[in-house]
Write a structure and sequence with these properties.
Chain A is an alpha/beta fold. Chain A has twelve helices and 17 strands. Helix content of chain A is about 35%, strand content about 20%. In chain A, strands 1, 10, 11, 12, 13, 14, 15, 16 and 17 form a nine-stranded mixed β-sheet that branches. Chain A has an eight-stranded parallel β-sheet with strand order 2-9-8-7-6-5-4-3.
Amino acid sequence: MESGFARDEDLHRSLLGQAGGRARLNTPVLVVDLPALDRNIARMAAFAAAAGLKLRPHAKTHKSPDIARRQIAAGAVGQCCAKLGEAEALAAHGVSAGLLITSPVVSAPAVARLAALNLVTDGLMCVVDHPDNARAIGAAAQAKGKPLTVLIDIDPGLHRTGVTSAEAAVALWQVIAQTPGLAYGGVQFYCGAHQHIADLAERRAAMEERADYLRTVIAALSEAGGAPAIVTGGGTGTHRIDATLGVFTELQVGSYVFMDRQYLDCEFGLEDPYETALMVDARVVSTNTPGLVTVDAGLKAFATEVGPPTVLAGAPDGAVYRFMGDEHGALICKAGGLPGLGSVVTLGTPHCDPTVNLHDTYHVVDADTLVALWPVAGRGRSR
Amino acid sequence: MESGFARDEDLHRSLLGQAGGRARLNTPVLVVDLPALDRNIARMAAFAAAAGLKLRPHAKTHKSPDIARRQIAAGAVGQCCAKLGEAEALAAHGVSAGLLITSPVVSAPAVARLAALNLVTDGLMCVVDHPDNARAIGAAAQAKGKPLTVLIDIDPGLHRTGVTSAEAAVALWQVIAQTPGLAYGGVQFYCGAHQHIADLAERRAAMEERADYLRTVIAALSEAGGAPAIVTGGGTGTHRIDATLGVFTELQVGSYVFMDRQYLDCEFGLEDPYETALMVDARVVSTNTPGLVTVDAGLKAFATEVGPPTVLAGAPDGAVYRFMGDEHGALICKAGGLPGLGSVVTLGTPHCDPTVNLHDTYHVVDADTLVALWPVAGRGRSR
């Protein structure tokens, strides 16, 4: 429909492989540093292997079949997805084994699509936290003639999703065991609120307390006959702790591939830390105020719920970013030395998952060379 | 590429025209109340006509050729766009007359596309705030053989874009007048920070002070020979004030079509106010905690920078929404009475422009009937 109009996608494709091509991209663009991404993927794969844990990284972070394939090539057993639509997007691009949908799929049309996706993928799993939902999914899977594996989602105290007691877990397991069309796979226990406890010792103490609770739920399930084969959980903030708890069988870490500003605020105590691999390149579009320049990336280029982006390159030390509406931000540096009209600056993302969701394409770079364009295939797939 | 997978777009198309179809949409969905939208469009058109002002509504709000056409049918002279990409998206869908790009177009590839868009549209305009940018645009337009009309962007004190003094405005006018490929159209003066001053009398006083400054800039331009034919500005928050100032020739209001929570917090003093026409329908997906249910719309369904959405329908009075991550929110009501698993609730958007940018499709309803599906054609067009 838009074939009569020039789009910068054509320009960007023409820059592939050219040294200096990154600086000639139109802006704002979502940028991935490929060597840093690959080092992050290798670090986490080596950690999980050494810990004897499976790795099912969370695609809600990257929404990218290309990044999923790199994680799987490094040893991951599949991918987690927040919503059915993300799983469909991965499967449509050939990443169709070992997908786990980590939040309940409830609406009638989504349950029907879930059963359809189960037919064309290998090892699809979904969490459930309510008997009615378990029965609905079982009926849909049964009608399609292929059982679907479900995990019991256990609420770690976040009160987002999950059963809230050992008794409720056992009752739900009994429904699953009695429902045709369902296979029981185990449990999920994702401590979302624990990931960003900045102090490492506090984070460890909080996770150890939660692991004690998880063990009581697993004991009750096991006593009833529902010992879980899979115990999935963990995130970038807690994964080094989770691996020592002796209760998880796999990790569903996501943000480690990119490391946003939120996670850089967390203490990890690592000699070889995860690196910032995701950023936005923006361009200076107005320079009329002393100590301030305006760039072309604003509320539509960055998620805003955890504050502003950081300034990574292209501006003097001490320059800070301030949101200036949908399409703009200010770089402020009272000492001066700010970049001139048309200059490119590189900004670090405040929270990677919803920032990625604002963009259609990863511009994959190695230093100043554009080496690939990857679609954000799961962007907007919230249904 | 995804043809092998069921998508709910097909389901949603199949529900068009069916009474009760809205409740059967998969969720989360961006919903427009068509009668309320049309009343808002008619109210603003009548106001501008009575005030003797042209109306060039801002498409950064809706990003929709369908809504643009309704505004133009009601008398609007065209559309404002925040970025070149939005203007291209409108033009590609047949809305190609009277487009004004309200922020500077600076990068070399964008300047080339601007000159190309000028060839296939009628009356395209763009703002400039720097002599170098004016010369670059003039050279590109000249090379294409069709002059481009530019407006001088005047900074109202926001320090986002615009020249910052009468002297700078005159100097830029002189560059425009001397640059082949450019036609001088007038000035833009958009007081973004004034739109959300909650108290009407304070808002009026602040705008009157700013109008005094604008008059001094216009006087200096006029004395130099650059009297502006177009003086564009105004927003939903100030338009009733702007129309009394005797300085604007046209209004670039945007949010009035939808009326988000931010604007509902503003005092307007109108007997016949603008109505909430934009909302998100979400579904309850978890119900295991007393006084709280979880819905399937979170950070990826709503812009977050001005706080949470409001609860419009489907939950008891007093229920409030809390963000619970990328894909979820909690509805909290200690008194109980919350909706059950699978129930649909309707949420009001906190800030309409960046909320719309998170969605691909408007689900247009008249009461409980789905009457149209409109693409958010300008979504993500930040370049």
